[in-house]
Please model this.
Amino acid sequence: MYRTTDILTSSTSGDMVINVGPQHPATHGVLHLVITLNGETIKKIEPHLGYIHRSIEKMCESLTYRQFIYVTSRMDYLSAHINNHACALCVEKGLQIEVPPRAQVVRVILDELTRIASHELWWGAMAMDLGAFTPFFHAFREREMINEIMEETCGARLTMNYIVPGGVMMDIHPNFQKKIKEFIVLYKQKINEYHELVTGNVIFENRMKNIGTLTAEQVISYGCSGPVARGSGVKSDIRKLYPYEIYDKLDFEEALETGGDSYARYLIRMREMEQSIKIIEQLVDNIPDGDFQAKTKAVLKLPKGEFYTSVETARGELGVYIVSEGGTTPYRIKFRSPGFSNLSILNDMVKGGKIGDLIAAMGTLDLVIPDIDR
Amino acid sequence: MFLKDYIKEVAGALKSLASGMKMTGYYFTHHKEIITEEYPDNRNSLVLAERFKGEVVMTHDENNEHACTGCTACELACPNATIKIITKFDVDEATGKKKKALDTFIYHLELCTLCNLCVDACPTGAIKMAPTFEHSVFDRNQLTKKLNNPGSKIRAGVE
Model:
């Protein structure tokens, strides 16, 4: 039915190669896909990377441990705050800084807000890819509220750079808790609208179900993480497996589906948003008093050695690996980005499917190209 | 049985479409809150967050005095070499000693990524982020700014 194996194994006669993207080298997020087609069936798909490579890892080698954090906002710009968090955690691990509880709670609240904002954008863009225009506006209306909270407390809407090694840069804005409570009340109504508008829709379901099916074995062998892995039933939430900050004290569930298709990944993200709301609800009234930043030395010097931390971004596991020679700048930095591993599974995902289903399958990978290329 | 399932499926499909259209119809008829901001028409009533990171400015009080000692902490903290500080030596009138002081605070807005690290590093709170965002100019040289006002001097008591 879906996998037309006879076309895949046939000779190369009658094959057509088409290029999808990039539209323009100056657009953001340029991904080049070379698709080999036989009729409408995809025989092979090859992603070409490097259009937006900015050598962030190399840049970080010439920046100090305070300075390099801001660059990582430009990797996965939709979860910029979580990227900063990962880097700060790695530096704190090296220096063995105890982060004050207030800073930890504020970091986690903003992490979860970032996750909601990222999934919101994905939800709107995903529906727009499938031809529905209205959900995009619904999603951006709520995302705007999160952006306003970010703007008020962090001073920026997208590339916050709010986290410094040892805590957060500024104390929270007086309106912080009030605005988040307003958001939670509103959001719980709106998420039902999302389900009514898109989730149960027959056109949407028919386009998403049994598209881009991944087995747990495939997901593990490609190193996928985040909603892509959890859609196939692989437990991969770093917040549960290797808890950082205060996640081990929080009550939330890891969303798991066993379908492995695009629809399962869609449901995972919708449920993750609800879980994030649950986490924020637990924390927003319980922000402890005290310092928002631990006392650190003016010049940070990591001891000689290797340090690795990983966090759960909106897309999966982000790992930060620092090799230090004992100086003020890192000797080598490597980022294990979730997008790169998730993209590499694309060929297995859509091979044998129709080209019309490519977007429905690829959209659920939630690719952010600057995260893949760095 | 086949026909029954078929009719059930079609009915379910139509119901799902109707519930989606109901939502769309509700927002079509209840357009009470307008979210769109009509920039630049609303420029006079535009309120930006007080912490919004638009550009680095140096605060001067009414006596045209600033708090910058010329210690270059911000210059060292900046990841993009956005700030260049030129210092001079002032002669203290009372003691006759030479003292380092700020001559020119050069700020390259065109290089700045607005990361707030310079403001965080400043020991005397001399610089801050201003919530301005209309930075378009015709020539990029105009984006290189001198932050300390002409004739300004350091506030007494700031070390």
Observations:
- DSSP finds three helices and seven strands in chain B.
- The longest strand of chain B covers residues 98-108.
